[in-house]
Amino acid sequence: MAAQAPAGEDDLIVGINVTPLVDIVLVLLVILMVTASYVASQSIPLELPRAATGEAAPQLLAVTIDQHGAISLDASPIDERALREHVRRMQRQAGGAALTAAIAADGRARHAQVVRVVDVLRQERVTRFALHVEAAPEPGR
Fold first, then answer.
1. Sorting pLDDT into bands at 50, 70 and 90, what band is 58?
2. Cα dihedral angle (19, 21, 25, 28), rounded to 10 degrees?
3. How many CB atoms lie within 10 A of CB 117?
4. For residues 22-41, b (16+ Cβ closer than 10 Å) or e, as one string?
5. Domain ranges (residues) in the chain
6. How far apart are CA 117 and CA 108, in angstroms?
7. How far is Cα 85 from Cα 116, in angstroms, rounded to an integer?
8. pTM of the predicted structure, to 2 decimals
9. Residues 69-122 pLDDT 10s
10. Could you tell me how far CA 108 lies from the centroid of its own chain?
11. Which stretches does DSSP call E strand in 7-139?
């Protein structure tokens, strides 16, 4: 006596239910994320060697000048005297490493204000400067 399927159940499978597959993939993703954060937190403790010729990473001063001539340092408004004090403090912290000033001046700012800021920085022994500009569109575009 052979087993027979109930009537109507011998139809072809028309679709596959992917919900269990998605569930398994999401569980594996969560396990991967938890494991990766644990592995990253268990990094190898290192005591880096010292070298007489090693160089410190350059300190960066982000100075902006708006169209009205107002000066900002790291997006915080500042006047020339406070800028001077901040640069002196950074010079002490840098221990002789060269400071680089990245100046972003509005195109409508007065040239004299930009020169004045550069002069303040140069008086405090900042000799490396970078000027932020936008690339001009190519001719014919």
1. low
2. 110
3. 22
4. eeeeeeeeeeeeeeeeeeee
5. 59-131
6. 16
7. 16
8. 0.56
9. 999 998 889 999 999 999 999 888 877 778 889 999 998 999 999 999 999 999
10. 28
11. 59-65, 71-73, 76-77, 99-105, 128-131
Confidence of residue 52 (pLDDT cuts 50, 70, 90): confident
Give the C-alpha separation, 1 to 131, whole Å: 91
CA 25 – CA 27 distance, rounded (Å): 5
Residue 66 amino acid letter: D
CATH number of the domain at 59-131, out of 3.10.20.70, 3.30.420.270, 3.40.50.1970, 1.10.860.10? 3.30.420.270
Of the ranges 9-23, 33-47, 89-103, which one carries the lowest mean pLDDT score?
33-47
